[in-house]
């Protein structure tokens, strides 16, 4: 009886697995938590799949981790937001060419009480310097993501080394944007966030936008085909079709049309 | 309190409406973890029996190592399997990364030590009790193992449940090797992690409650099998 049950169970799993393994045409895209958490992919990908029959499998990690995945050849397309790293990725021969896709902006969110008194400031580095001066709690990604790299760049411009106060007022969460916002909400801390994740984020507590609009808070997203010369298994035709579609009128219009509560999350700007 | 209430409501509405995404995600969770459990048992039960019955050099070391591996963090196993299955790794040519198969492999590695260690204990006691008889009857080793597994089947069920619990509950390994890809490798635990990162705590906790219900149902099924089985065949 035991053996028969095992056989039946085994057969069942094989059947189930076979069902999962239907060989569909698919590409793997290494992207960032900001694009996934905001819901952008759920909004645009069905149209592409319907048109081309190509399934897009998105692995959402931080920009730094996404670039490592792509370098290892574990993705066909890289879709992230830190231009210097992306250009380096191409220059080192890991990617074919980098294209602009869309942009939005970063914002500094903080608790309603605003202990550093930065609300409404338009100079982001001055605001950060003030946060440091006051020793007001700040939650950082600390995960080598695009947002983290951006934040470190801004601190540098502000002439502050926040990592010297790590564990004091400066909290490095080492996790995604949403997780970091959860920490900020719980600790009444400031944080640098991309607008897309912020708009779709639900557990805000008393957090609100404190600083926005500085040109230095510009956030450009780019897409790159992983170099098939380096990784022969890269699905070039399908991946190129996806990149072309993202930059096409149809793809760009869909990106522009993605809103949450009437607010636009990304602005398409492919050349 | 509100969040908790919200979560309970969310969980019930997800279950009552048989939410299509939920059914798919829960189905994949069960499929991956039960397959991993089956494979881990095929490896772990013989390994546990061998450790219980045979005496060979390195046996004690192996037992200690297996016991230690029961506490291996899933994220480390995930990383190990990632490095092995990555296109740049030794098994990269198979293209298994970010597939349910990769998740099963990782969970097998997580579950084998539990099955092997716990079954060794069960088998050791049975072996101590019966090995004189088996020896005097001249029963071969393979039949002895089968007889012992059959005799200890209800105790071994506990080992199976522990293994299943480890597999279905872990998030670290399947997140790394599965990638939490929607409709492909998203399971209950990675879906929960995703909802937490979106700040949708009610939905996350709702999914968590569904996962707890799944575990309860499995554990109840195990208990019933044990109860009725023991009553029918004797303990």
TrEMBL record, chain A:
Domain PBP: 29-250
Organism of derivation: Aestuariispira insulae
Keywords recorded for this protein, A-Z: Signal
Signal peptide residues on this chain, from the entry's feature table: 1-23
SUPFAM superfamilies: Periplasmic binding protein-like II
Pfam families: PBP_like_2
Protein name: Tungstate transport system substrate-binding protein
Alphabetical list of PANTHER family matching this protein: EXTRACELLULAR TUNGSTATE BINDING PROTEIN
UniProtKB/TrEMBL annotation, chain B:
One cellular-component annotation, GO: plasma membrane
Localization annotation: Cell membrane
BP terms from Gene Ontology: transmembrane transport
UniProt xrefs under CDD domains: TM_PBP2 (cd06261)
InterPro entries: ABC_perm_TupB-like (IPR049783), MetI-like (IPR000515), MetI-like_sf (IPR035906)
Keywords linked to the UniProt accession: Membrane, Transmembrane, Transmembrane helix, Transport
Keyword Transport: yes
TM stretches of this protein: 32-54, 61-85, 91-118, 201-225
Predominant location: membrane
Domain of life from the UniProt record: Bacteria
Domain ABC transmembrane type-1 stretches: 26-222
Pfam families the record matches: BPD_transp_1 (PF00528)
Bilayer topology annotation: Multi-pass membrane protein
Gene3D superfamilies: MetI-like (1.10.3720.10)
Family: Belongs to the binding-protein-dependent transport system permease family.
Cited PANTHER family: PERMEASE COMPONENT OF TUNGSTATE ABC TRANSPORTER (PTHR43632:SF1)
Protein name, UniProt field: Tungstate transport system permease protein
Organism whose genome encodes this protein: Aestuariispira insulae
